[in-house]
Amino acid sequence: MFGLKFLGKTHIPHNKNTADLTPVKMTPPKEVLLPMAQHIGAPATPVVKVGDEVKVGQLIAEPSGYVSSPIYSSVSGKVTKIDNYLRPDGKSVPAIRIESDGEMSVLEGITPPEVTDFDSFIGAIRSSGLVGLGGAGFPTSVKLDAVKNGGIHTIVINGAECEPYITSDTRTMLDQSEAVYDGIALLEKYVPTAEKFIFGIEKNKPACIEEMARIFQDNPKVSIMPLPSLYPQGAEKVIIYNTTGLTVPEGKLPADVGVLVINVTSLAVLANYVKTGMPLVEKCVTVDGSAVKEPKNVVAPIGTSIREIIEFAGGLKEEAGKVIFGGPMMGIPACSLDEPISKTTNAITVFNVKEATEREASACIHCGRCVSACPMGLNPTAFSKALGYGTEEKMEKLEEASINLCMECGCCSYVCPASRPLVQNNRLGKTALREYKAHKASLK
Ligand code: SF4
Ligand code: SF4
């Protein structure tokens, strides 16, 4: 049966080289590029035009649907261009380019939002521009709005940060524990059905476990759960299972089993917004990898180019062979150093040419390691095989093998001795199935 194996067995070098480094705020970048789709859902709609002067925290694009998110200027300066930007995933979206005046002047009149009840709480989260910072960027207001349907008994705070190299959540727990504390107080107030708040933190972060235990020592509703340092401990279904013992069935949401998961940095951003009214305009980004001269945590305005962030961090010591938004397991390769960081970027990992050179794939030797490594109990070879069939049969076989349960964690590819492109095949299969279903639905 699928989905009952969540612990996983994949030991991956953690490389948390920057865990002890307090984030450094970067100098103002020359310009920022802000794509209108930094979240799942409808792209935001620009409300500024070329030539407009903007300030930090000023609304430059409003949400264009329920599942959407506003975008704010992260620098002060002038809007120089609004055109299309090709994202690393190949999709083209409108983007606003702002030339910085170097002043980082904050918009006058920013005040904390008035939060008095559930609706104003959700409204504040929506206005903050907050989207899931530990994952794909699902608008946090939409996630929390589902709470009004009732039945949430447990809130899991995801502080696992299992992806190699990345330490931005680690720093949130150490440097912003007060905001994390305030975030829990907000959730206690506005999600009154929640009886338990469980922090899931990997055991390789003892200082975070200690700090969270210290600040919540007097709150009996909060527990801190040290988790084995096994990848992908931070994946939503994995952390739910490992902290609560509950399984989210295929096609269901955590809310269907009474659980809400929120990333620890999202929680801190939410609390900071309610306290100050300053929306999401900057991110702490871990800059690391074999080509990086001085690994660091850098706080950068959203929209800053990878190039400027790396330069600020001290530059490269070797030629870049591969640049990734995020870490090596689930990150997305960047096409160029001029690409900007977005709301969901928590790291820039740069590998040297030697490390980036992928071994050529050879034939499957049927060793079964990919099956053993899959935390969801899936058979990745079945997905690859299914891709070779004609459309109808392919879709049938992909569904039969539960491809939608694949969370693209990359464990199967990581352990494969034949270097088979398993996770890439899984992505292709999931996209093909999704498009096929959408096409079928459109014909009805
Ligand atoms: S990427 Fe591979 S290991 Fe991870 S869930 Fe999907 S099939 Fe399983
Ligand atoms: S790990 Fe690689 S070689 Fe082994 S069964 Fe899976 S695909 Fe085949």
Summarize the structure.
This protein is of the alpha/beta class and 444 residues long.
Give the arrangement of secondary structure elements.
Elements: E1 24-25, E2 31-35, E3 45-46, E4 53-54, E5 59-62, E6 71-72, E7 77-86, E8 92-100, H1 118-128, H2 140-145, E9 154-158, H3 168-175, H4 177-190, E10 196-202, H5 206-215, E11 222-227, H6 236-244, E12 259-263, H7 264-276, E13 282-288, E14 296-301, H8 306-313, E15 320-325, E16 332-333, E17 347-352, H9 353-356, H10 369-373, H11 380-386, H12 391-400, H13 411-415, H14 422-443
Parallel strand pairs: 1-14, 9-10, 9-12, 10-11, 13-17
Antiparallel strand pairs: 2-8, 3-5, 4-7, 5-6, 7-8, 13-14, 15-16, 15-17
This protein binds iron/sulfur cluster (SF4) (2 copies).
One iron/sulfur cluster binds next to helix 10.
**Average of the residue pLDDT scores:** 93
**Strand order in the sheet with the most strands:** 1-14-13-17-15-16
Bound molecules: iron/sulfur cluster
**Briefly, what CATH class of the domain at 118-276?**
Alpha Beta
Helix fraction bin: 25-40%
Strand content: 15-25%
The description of the largest β-sheet is: 6 strands, mixed
The dominant shape is globular
As a whole number of angstroms, the C-alpha radius of gyration is: 22 Å
Which structural class matches the secondary elements?
alpha/beta
Give the tally of β-strands.
17
Query: What is the level-2 CATH architecture name of the domain at 118-276?
Result: 3-Layer(aba) Sandwich
Query: What separation lies between the terminal Cα atoms?
Result: 33 Å
Enumerate how many helices there are, as a single number. 14
Under CATH, the topology of the domain at 118-276 can be stated as Rossmann fold
Give the CATH H-level superfamily of the domain at 118-276. NADH-ubiquinone oxidoreductase 51kDa subunit
- Poorly predicted segments: none
